[in-house]
Amino acid sequence: MFCRYFCFFSVCLLLPTQRRCSLGHVPDLRGSDTTSLPGFENLTLGYNKYLRPYFGGEPVQIAMSLDIASISSISESDMDYTATIYLRQRWTDPRLVFHGNKSFTLDARLVELLWVPDTYIVESKKSFLHDVTVGNRLIRLFSNGTILYALRITTTVACNMDLSKYPMDTQTCRLQLESWGYDENDVIFTWLRGNDSVHGVEKLRLSQYTVERYYTLVSKSQQETGSYPRLILQFELRRNVLYFILETYVPSTLLVMLSWVSFWITLDSVPARTCIGVTTVLSMTTLMTGSRSSLSKTNCFIKAIDVYLGICFSFIFGALVEYAVAHYSSSQKCAAKAPEEGPANELTKEMEEVNITNILNSSITSYKRKISFTSIEISSDNVNCSDLTMKTHEKIKCVLRNKMHRIIGYFTIQNPSNVDHYSKLLFPLFFMLVNVFYWAYYLYF
């Protein structure tokens, strides 16, 4: 059956116009025209599509080339990419040699009657062969027995991504072609022209990526059933960071700067400063949540954008805490002044009611008491811990008490208004230093 249809289609293409075949009629190859195709009628005599060329002998050399038509999507959440490719395979089958120097393009449905390589795409999640309007396949036969077999395939291939530097990352993805059942003793895969075997990569226009470079490799896959030939196309994709700068980095930086506005508002304006602090914290939280929603399935990675958003959130929250500390210190200082001013006012009223003698007597008495109390406080604060009469545990307690007084005095805020004054300088300075280290690390290391 194969010989009948194969000879019918092929011979009809080669015969002159006036001798073309009519439907259902096969020309007689024994006539005068048989000299143009000597032996063609026996081309498929004894052909077995279940046996590879050179069966039992040397391996078949299969040369491949690729055209990348498009890469429609690259998914960080699923860690894969979808590409449409034109795969071309060439090999020589000595059983299909015929005389002449022409090549014939055959009906793609005849591929079912020929031996073809069992090539598959490694790490492919799903693939399909285009079939509109017919199956997008091509079979071309050359006189020396070389067969060109071309396919149009859309495939979704896994790509392991390292998102630690997202969105300033560069991803390396692969498209790997391997023989499923024939090991290296049966078939040998080679690229037709090395790196020039791949076309279309340099013309790709992707939404978030730019193709940095690509190259081809020849490898082997060592498995339990044998060593299988493998061809690898490896390409590097660099993410375009400009979109993320406008979408995330600039808004988060502006929110940090907005939180610094509270440093120029007085401590008495509690609603204004509290409103700015709470609003910036909530806005930053919303921005962080939105940035993570696009990569919901890859939250296990600590990405560069997460680090920056965490830094901005820390500065915004620090500005809110700064106001809480300054306001608390100010209220404590006012509370400490209130008892001192109360007895003074009462003393003034008494001085208006008593005579000069009573004033002098009471003043002298109170002055003596103050001197005695002051001397006692001074002596208690400056206890001499080297006194020989003191016991060891008392000396230890004395030293610890003096140390604690010094530490508390060191961290005590004497003037709460200075907190805002220093924050105006320290917050922007530290934020700029952190930005310098952040961008230097993720861009150059």
TrEMBL record:
A Pfam match is Neur_chan_memb
Q: Which GO terms describe its molecular function?
A: GABA-A receptor activity; GABA-gated chloride ion channel activity
What are the Neurotransmitter-gated ion-channel transmembrane domain coordinates in residue numbering? 248-341
Q: How does it sit in the membrane?
A: Multi-pass membrane protein
**Which InterPro entries does UniProt cross-reference here?**
GABAA/Glycine_rcpt, GABAAp_rcpt, GABAAR_pi_TM, Neur_chan_lig-bd, Neur_chan_lig-bd_sf, Neur_channel, Neuro-gated_channel_TM_sf, Neuro_actylchol_rec
**What Gene3D superfamilies does this protein's entry cite?**
Neurotransmitter-gated ion-channel ligand-binding domain, Neurotransmitter-gated ion-channel transmembrane domain
| Signal peptide positions on this chain | 1-24
Domain Neurotransmitter-gated ion-channel ligand-binding: start-end pairs: 41-240
A Gene Ontology CC term for this entry? chloride channel complex
Query: Keywords of this protein's UniProt record, alphabetized?
Result: Cell membrane, Chloride, Chloride channel, Disulfide bond, Glycoprotein, Ion channel, Ion transport, Membrane, Signal, Synapse, Transmembrane, Transmembrane helix, Transport
Transmembrane segments annotated in the record for this chain: 241-264, 270-288, 300-321, 425-444
Q: What is the reaction catalyzed? A: chloride(in) = chloride(out)
> Where is this chain's protein located in or outside the cell?
Apical cell membrane; Synaptic cell membrane
Q: Which domain of life is it from?
A: Eukaryota
**Role summary:** Pi subunit of the heteropentameric ligand-gated chloride channel gated by gamma-aminobutyric acid (GABA). GABA-gated chloride channels, also named GABA(A) receptors (GABAAR), consist of five subunits arranged around a central pore and contain GABA active binding site(s) located at the alpha and beta subunit interfaces. When activated by GABA, GABAARs selectively allow the flow of chloride anions across the cell membrane down their electrochemical gradient. Pi-containing GABAARs are mostly located in peripheral tissues.
- Subunit structure and binding partners: Heteropentamer, formed by a combination of alpha (GABRA1-6), beta (GABRB1-3), gamma (GABRG1-3), delta (GABRD), epsilon (GABRE), rho (GABRR1-3), pi (GABRP) and theta (GABRQ) chains, each subunit exhibiting distinct physiological and pharmacological properties.
The entry's family comment says: Belongs to the ligand-gated ion channel (TC 1.A.9) family. Gamma-aminobutyric acid receptor (TC 1.A.9.5) subfamily. GABRP sub-subfamily.
**What protein name applies here?**
Gamma-aminobutyric acid receptor subunit pi
Lineage at the top is: Eukaryota, Metazoa, Chordata, Craniata, Vertebrata
